[in-house]
Amino acid sequence: MGQTDEKSMIAKASGLKTPEYICYALGDAGGCLVFGLVTSILQTYYTDVLILSPFFIMVMFVLTRVWDAVNDPIMGRICDTAPVSKHGRYRVWFLRVAFPLAIASILLFLKFDGFGTPGDNLPAYIYATITYVAWGMIYTMLQIPYGSLATVITLDVKERSKLSVFRAVGSALGSMPVMVLSMLCFSTDKATGKSIVKYDVLLTGVIVMSVLSVISLLLAFAGTKERVKTEPPKHEKGAASKALKLIFRNKAMLSISVVAMLLLAGQMFTQSYYIYLIRYYFGKGGIFVSLPTILTYIPMAILMLFTPKLARKFGKKEITSVGMIIAAAANFLMFFLKFLDPGAALMPFMVLCLISGFGLNLFVLQLWAMAGDAIDEIEVSTGSKDNGTAYAFLNFFRKLGQVISAIAVNAALLAMGYYDTASTLEFVFSEGQLDLMYVLATLIPAVMFALMAIALLFWYPLSKEKVGELQNRKEDYLKGQVR
C-alpha cells in the first residue's frame, strides 16, 4: 500500500501531454534563435564588418565570462529564493525576458557611421563591449530559469528523458534560421580575397529572428505548467555558499557540467570557425558555409525517434559515451583529409561531419535528462532544493565552454595573421596559413569530444543501474517529505 502511495505522489507531478512537450521545446527554440546569432555569426560580424581585432574579441569574451562567474549564481539564487509568482517560480521568466532579449539581440548587430574604419575604430570597440555584456546578462535571465523548469514540470524519469529530446529538437529548430542567414550573408570573392557581407540582409534576418524569439518564448510561457510545488529555502547566513559547496561536491553534477562545457566549446568552435574554413580553405560560399552545421543537426531528426528507447534499454550514460567516441573518431579522421587537395577533400569532410553529428546528438538529446538526474541526486542525498543554483552551476560551466571556444577561434585567427589582412579588407592567405587553419579546425574539436567520451565513461557515475536506484530513493524521499 505504501509503495502505491509513493508512486501516486510522483504520478501527481507527472503526466505530460504532447502540446506541453512542444511548448517546452519552444523555450529553447526561442533562446537559440538569438543565441545562434552569437555562436555562429557574431564572431565573423565582428572581424569582417566591425573590423575588430581577434585578440580584442578573445579578451572581451573571456572577461565577460568572468563576470558571468558572479552573474549566473546570482540569477540562480534569485530563482530559488524569490517568492513564487502567480505564474510559477521559473516559467514566469519567459514573460519577463522575451522582449528585452529581442531588443538586446538587435542592438548587437546595429552598425553606425564610423564603425569598421581601420585605424579609427574605438567607437565600435566600446559599442561591441557594452551590447555584448548586456546581451549576456539578459540571456542568463532566460537560461537559468528555463533549465530549472524541467525539474518542476515532471518527476518521472521517462518524461524527463523525453523532455530532454524535445529541448534538443527545439534548440536545433531555433538554430536552423541562423544557418540560412549565414548562407545569404557571407561569401568571399575568390579572385580578390575580399570579404563580402550583405549587411542589410544580415540586419533584416536578425530582426526577424528576434521577433520569432519573442513569439516562441510567449508560447512556451502559455503552454507549460509547474506541477512540483516549490517553496523558497529558509534564509540562512551563508546559504548560497553552502548550496554551491554541496553541488560542487556532487560527482554527477560536476562531471556532467564539465562534459557540457566541452560540448558547447566544441560546438561553438566548429560553428564559428567553419565559416572561415569553408570560405578560405575550401573556397566556397552560399550553402556550403552552413552545410557542416546542417549535416551535424540532420541526425537529430532520426535519433530523436529512438534515443529515449535506447536510453531506457541501455542507459543514458552508456549510449552517450558511445556517441562521443563516434564523434571524436570522425573528427580525428577529418585531420587526415589535409593530405588531399581541398577540392577532393570537401565531400569526405562533409560525410564525416554527418557521422560526427550522429555521435554528438546521442549526447545532445540526453544532456538535460542527465542534468536532471544529477539535480535529483543532490536533493535526495542532501535535502538541498536549490534547483536554480544547481542549474546556474551547470550554466556557468557552459559559459566556460564559450571561453574555451573564444580563445581557440581567435587564437587560431591570430596565428594566421587574420587581423593584418582584415585591416586592408583583403583576405588572402599563404598555403601554410591555410594548412594551419585546417589542422586546428579538425584536431581541436576531436580532442574536446575525446575528453567528453572519457569523462562520461570513467567519471559520470549515473549508469542505468544507478538511475534506477535513484528513482527508488526519490520515491522514498518524497514520502518522507509528505510526512
Descriptive overview:
By secondary structure, the protein is mainly α. It has one domain (16-227, 239-482): MFS general substrate transporter like domains (Growth Hormone, Chain: A, Up-down Bundle), CATH 1.20.1250.20. 78% of the residues lie in helices and 1% in strands. It has 18 helices and two strands. It is globular and about 70 Å long. The chain starts with a helix and ends with a helix.
Summarize the structure.
By secondary structure, the protein is mainly α. The chain has helices spanning 2-12, 18-48, 54-81, 92-108, 122-153, 157-185, 199-223, 239-248, 251-281, 287-303, 307-314, 316-335, 342-364, 367-382, 387-415, 418-422, 431-458, 464-482; strands at residues 186-188, 195-197.
The arrangement of helices and strands along the chain is HHHHHHEEHHHHHHHHHHHH
Helix content: over 70%
Cα-to-Cα separation, first versus last residue? 15 Å
The SS-based structural class is mainly alpha
Q: Please name the fourth-level CATH homologous superfamily.
A: MFS general substrate transporter like domains
Radius of gyration: 22 Å
**Biggest pleated-sheet summary:** 2 strands, antiparallel
Q: What's the CATH topology name?
A: Growth Hormone, Chain: A
Strand order of the largest sheet: 1-2
* Overall spatial form: globular
The residue ranges in which pLDDT falls below 50 over 5 or more consecutive positions are 1-7
**Number of helical regions:** 18
What proportion strand? under 5%
Instruction: Give the tally of β-strands.
Output: 2
The average pLDDT value, as a whole number, equals 83
